[in-house]
Recover the amino acids of this structure.
């Protein structure tokens, strides 16, 4: 009579305890997910910056079509893509129409390069031949410091954050405008603002610009 009892007892299986995830392991997994998302986002941003860099060109209009113009610059002929959102300004920073552009005019074009290296124009500013010949440098950058006492500001160019420029703002003929063409003053420029500096003079070191025109973005 003892044998069945022994057999029955031997079939009883004790369940093995399954370890539950610790709080530390869950936090680590969460951190890894966040790090991967941040890495992916940074790659997207870097790719966007590389494929769509902002540019500014000065040149002479050689051809005008309904959706684009041809521009002759110092190094090559370029195609400028026009859109309904393109802003046109004359040499006095007054808004004009696309139909006011003429072959042979000197213009400054600010925009973004597309995949075919054509410039999609955000703003087109008509300049005089005299002023365009004097233009030396165009820099799109972010203001990091301003000295009203010495009429200077420091900017870091968007295209190269390892470089820094000093911008002289004490010229009598300095023009300051908004991206829509509204006239501004130096008081409208503050730290953190993005600006385009058009310089008529560059120091021998290449790090100090004398501003002729500033466009506040």
């Amino acid at each position: 009579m003892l044998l069945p009892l022994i057999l029955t007892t031997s079939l009883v299986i004790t369940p093995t305890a399954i370890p539950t995830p610790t709080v530390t392991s869950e936090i680590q997994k969460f951190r890894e997910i966040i790090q991967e998302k941040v890495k992916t986002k940074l790659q997207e941003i870097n790719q966007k910056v590389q494929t769509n860099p902002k540019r500014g060109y000065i040149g002479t209009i050689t051809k005008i079509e309904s959706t684009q113009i041809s521009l002759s610059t110092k190094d090559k002929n370029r195609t400028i893509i026009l859109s309904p959102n393109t802003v046109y300004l004359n040499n006095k920073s007054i808004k004009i129409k696309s139909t006011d552009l003429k072959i042979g005019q000197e213009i400054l074009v600010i925009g973004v390069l597309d995949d075919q290296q054509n410039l999609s124009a955000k703003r087109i500013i008509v300049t005089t031949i005299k002023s365009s010949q004097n233009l030396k440098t165009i820099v799109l950058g972010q203001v990091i410091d301003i000295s009203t006492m010495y009429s200077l500001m420091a900017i870091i160019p968007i295209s190269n954050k390892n470089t820094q420029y000093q911008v002289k703002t004490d010229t009598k003929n300095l023009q300051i405008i908004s991206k829509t063409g509204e006239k501004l003053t130096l008081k409208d420029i503050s730290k953190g603002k993005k600006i385009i500096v058009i310089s008529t003079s560059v120091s021998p070191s290449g790090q100090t610009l004398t501003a002729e025109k500033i466009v506040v973005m």
